[in-house]
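Help wanted!
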Amino acid sequence: MKPVIQAENLGRVFDNGTVRVEALKDVNFTIGTGELVAITGSSGSGKSTLLGILGCLDRPTSGNYILDGVAVAGMQNRELAALRNRKIGFVFQSFQLLQRTSALDNVELPMLYNPSIPEGSRKKLAMEALDRMGLSDRALHKPSELSGGQQQRVAIARALVSNPKLILADEPTGNLDSESTASVMEILSGLNKSGTTVVIVTHEPDVAARCRRVISLRDGHIITDQVQESKIFADAIRVT
Amino acid sequence: MTIKDLVKISTTSLIRNGVRSWLTVLGVIIGVASVIAMQAIGNGSDESIKKEVRSMGVNVIMIFPGTFRMGGVAQSAGSMSVLEVEDAEKIKETVKTVVAVSPIVQSGQQIVYQTNNWRSNVTGIWADYFTIKAYKVSSGRLLTEREANGMSKNCLIGKTVYKKLFPAGSNPIGETIRVGTVPMKIVGVLEAKGSGTFGQDQDDIILAPLKTVQKRLLATTFIQQIQVSAKSEAKMTQAMADIRAYMLSKPNIISSDGEERFSIRSQSELSSMLGSISKVMILLLSSIAAISLLVGGIGIMNIMLVSVTERTREIGLRMALGATDRDVKIQFLAESIMLSVWGGILGIIFGYLISLLAGSILNWPVTVSSSSILLAFTFSAVVGIFFGYYPAKKASELDPIEALRYE
Ligand SMILES: Nc1ncnc2c1ncn2[C@@H]1O[C@H](COP(=O)(O)OP(=O)(O)OP(=O)(O)O)[C@@H](O)[C@H]1O
Ligand SMILES: [Mg+2]
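Answered by r_m:
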């Protein structure tokens, strides 16, 4: 199993001159291609900070992060932007859709920054992604005209439209009811089944239970990193 | 991101904030329009001064009694006798650098033709005056030397006098008009000269023989001015020196407080004085115009800063999805350039219309040059880049994580 994520002694210190917060310390783990991993922990334990580094939105203050075999440390901001664009799909708790823009245009957004996708095929690819989310009939709707679950599915369509290796989701079900949560989890594990590595930050045990591997953080470091035996059990729940 | 994407994104965002965008564009419109209009009016005043100078005549030198000051001619008591017809004769005889000399006396008079009345200026002149001022007739003929230098009761009228006294299309040649108390026969109508720099009508004029005006009309011998045409432009300075030498040879020409009781001016001096007045005016107007364009630019900067703040989350999202800092910068620059370029285009149109309007009110030949259009357009684009750069840079320097969290 080729690793997608290699975190070596990751540390992240926020220092604004007066207050010094060690949000991450000595974080070590490896995530292989095709894994479905949950990151859990109480509020303030450093989950979002870790995900920011994994998503190349932030840089560690110490340690090494290797994404898909490439060390990120020495890269320019511009190269990081390209990495995010080609290799990573983000899903956020608050969806982060452009409000007065149609679902279709929202899904098209990442392709604007990828010159290797010809302008003419963008709409078609965006439509296909929406179709996979079962939203082809909502393509021209604005986010305000969609339910929370539908909005999150638009956001997932946007994350997968450029076929990323890795999907990073920060509390993707935090704003959703249980029914929408189930459908979003269904979609994410479906994507995982078709080969995409998925990392989900969550503090919902239900959500974590659907992931084969769970990494738990407390005060910025890993306390447990385990493959759940109960995964089979979780699969059983999903069927019912 | 293609140019098409940029245009689409900026247009959508500008249209979304319709009123705000229009007000910002309006600031630029006012700036650009005033630059265009001021240029046009300035060029127009320059041109009208050139025309005025041309209508003043050829290499003209003027001799006035009294001292010439910026405010006008200060005539001390008894100054009238400083300048006499005899001086004109002497100058013509003795000063070799001049080709034409004419004394001038002017007087406002009531002019009557049949039942029509008009108050105009009667100017008494010699025949040389036509050479000096380059007068031509549009119908009839000029006064002959015998007529002009004698006591003939023939006269020439300007276009305005003709219009005021005669029905349109009628032939005034040979008709008799009453000038004050004196009946005079019209032998020619002068070619139109148009309005002067200060808007005075140069065609509201009657030219009559000097002696006739002096003796019959005013019962006096004094003259107000002598005008002279120098042999050539190169001879102007020499001619002025010669005339001054002649004047100084007259007795009693220096007043008790040591001032010369006459002044000599040349047409080029006058025109450069007028020119400098108009240059100051153009400079003043242009700086006001430039300031308003600057204010328009500040308006753009202001609105772009607001826009960057409002769209912080959008910026964070675009960055997360793979936009580079350069992409973000260009996106906001495109927006501010679009604002300023629209302002530029509409400003040029408005400026053009204002120039036409101003031209017709001021009676100036306003010309909107293509270079001033190009200048205004470039200027407005530069304003867009200059004032859009700071907000765009600010946007591109946002931290994606913080921007995404922005409420
Ligand atoms: N920009 C920052 N400046 C200073 N401190 C920060 C910053 N971002 C995060 N922190 C601190 O780092 C720690 C970890 O924050 P983080 O957002 O990663 O927690 P989290 O696990 O995602 O919590 P939650 O479940 O509430 O989202 C917190 O103590 C937080 O206050
Ligand atoms: Mg968090």
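OP: Thanks! One thing I noticed: Chain A touches chain B at residues 52, 55, 57-58, 77-78, 81-82, 84-86, 90, 92, 96, 98, 100-101, 109-110, 112-114, 119, 158 (CB under 8 Å).
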